[in-house]
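Chapter summary example: a protein plus tryptophan.
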Amino acid sequence: MYSLNLTNLPLMQSNQDTGSACTEYGDMATEKFRQEVFDGLASTPRRLSSKYFYDEKGDRLFQQIMAMPEYYLTKCELDIFSNKTPELFKAIVQDDEPFDLIELGAGDGMKSSYLIKYLQEEGVEFTYMPIDISGSILNVLNEKLRSDIPEVSILSLEGEYFEMLGKAASLSQRRKVVLFLGSNIGNMELNEAFEFSMELNKKLSTGDVILIGFDLRKNPHTILNAYNDKAGITAAFNLNLLTRINRELDADFDVEQFQHFQTYDPESGACRSYLISLLNQNVRIGGETISFVKDELIYMEVSQKFSKCEIKEMAQQTGFDFVGEISDSKGWFLDAAWRVI
Ligand code: TRP
């Protein structure tokens, strides 16, 4: 077994050359963050990008969200991965040929480890390639897999999805199976989700398979409750981004003066989160001041819900053959397998 954190390699090397690559990388990331915050807050409605939710505190709050009784998504997809593994296997494995199992945004790999274990037990030859923007979570995942399933071959790729997908393709000629779980596709606007799927299609080859987790439309109360918990964990998760901006971009958001607001529109299937300014207030970010009027909102994120029919349409319109769909015992969540035509 080998495990290689590819993106760390060039960084470590250039670090020896210049002694400052890490700092420069950090500066560049902060600069990008600053730019995106200013652009987002200047748009109408004001918005902040949810990809910045996941700092250390955000990671912890997200773990708490997944453990909440109201938040059904993780439990449903775990039901699929732990109880319907043979069906997943049938959807992704072809003729016992070796392949690369790539996971976009692998996180701690809780769900995928069931599949990995099953593949291993069935004697299939594969390399697991988790892709994540967070190097520290990849290390955790690596250690966990190494102790739970020591025989598995792992190649960790730290970085942006498409860049790392290109890297995976350049490293191996094997057929690719790509996992994109957790209804993360729902956190894109619908047009972005279509573009993402087309881009994925372009980066892959005929016969490659993707397995995408979709949250299904269901009773609107069930959906709204999952994102609007009474204990306020989801609120804290959203508000934590303001705290992060305060810390990393030298700002002075008064977090107490913003309130989380969640909507679910059963017609469009969009579940959206906002932060609302509770009064007229000025916020300083670095050298700039932004004025919020009372009740003004900041749009934070969408969690799109889909019908089975909408999922099939997306496959068709973005260049895939529909291979199969596997849902949990409640019929609330679905992992769809699509093959590149
Ligand atoms: N993709 C998951 C979802 O849409 C996880 C998630 C992303 C989430 N952002 C969230 C969960 C905000 C709760 C709140 O549900």
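Key point: Residues 91 and 337 are 6 Å apart (CA to CA).
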